[in-house]
Design brief:
The chain has about 260 residues and is mainly α. The chain has eleven helices and no strands.
């Protein structure tokens, strides 16, 4: 292989990465501009918009509301996804492929279709739009991702571990809590972080299922309808930094646990 050929692929990769991150860089830069006009050049830099975001009660209330919904849906997703993973994993079950396809359906359904169907569903069961409806919608959407992570980890578990635990006198429940659950810890942690971030950033299901109290993505969308503002860039930058930091921390911790 020629040297030029060996350098072409990395160069193409970095060119594509730069292309993807240019819009994000522009968004971050506009959050520090000392003017409400969105555009270049930037004559002065300021933290004014970040201070206004912190002092904005609507923004902070929507942020806390989104965090609370994300935490609740993550807990429910982990419990349900773990149970489904244990059902579809080591057990011999008739129609397991069909059950897996049905379980994964919410993850592959287009967002608009999912939002409309969930809105109709809560109407049928008599649940009013609001926090409980959003948590239900986010949980249904996140369960497939949790289940897939659990199944992937279970497929790597040596059967001899469970057999050894049973030989030492452990029943099914004790073997689960002392062998299987610790073995699943890295995947459960990764699934929790993923579900938390997806739920916090979910706009479509929050839009269709929300009541009078908006989540942060819905509030940002509402403000965007009246035009761009440096405040929107500021809060978006804060969310971006928090999401990236949490994702990087989760990845490093998962690698350490697997190691």
């Amino acid at each position: 292989m020629k040297r030029s050929d060996s350098l072409a692929l990395p160069a193409l990769y970095w060119a594509f990465a730069i292309y993807l991150f240019i819009p994000i860089g522009v968004m971050v830069a506009m959050g520090f501009k000392d003017s409400r006009f969105i555009g270049f050049p930037i004559e002065n830099w300021t933290l004014r918009w970040y201070l206004e975001v912190v002092q904005n009660e609507d923004m902070m209330r929507a942020f806390g509301y989104s965090v609370l919904i994300a935490l609740a849906s993550t807990v429910f997703s982990l419990v349900i996804g773990l149970l489904i993973g244990l059902l579809l994993g080591p057990t011999r079950l008739v129609g397991k492929t069909l059950l897996f396809a049905l379980m994964a359906l919410p993850a592959v359904t287009p967002g608009v279709i999912s939002g409309i169907s969930l809105r109709m569903f809560i109407k049928v069961i008599g649940l009013e739009p609001g926090m409980a409806a959003i948590i239900l919608g986010h949980t249904i959407h996140n369960v497939p991702f949790v289940t897939i992570m659990v199944l992937t980890r279970l497929s790597a578990q040596p059967p001899s571990l469970i057999e050894a635990a049973k030989d030492l006198g452990a029943d099914e429940i004790i073997a689960f809590f002392r062998v299987t659950l610790p073995f699943l810890k890295p995947s459960l942690f990764g699934a929790a972080i993923f579900a938390l971030l997806v739920s916090f950033d979910d706009f479509i299901r929050s839009f269709f299922l929300g009541g009078y109290e908006p989540t942060l993505p819905v509030l940002i969308f509402t403000k965007l309808r009246s035009g761009m503002s440096p405040e929107i860039n500021a809060i978006s930058t804060v969310v971006l930094v928090m999401t990236a930091a949490l994702g990087i921390y989760a990845e490093r911790l998962m690698r350490r646990q697997r190691g």
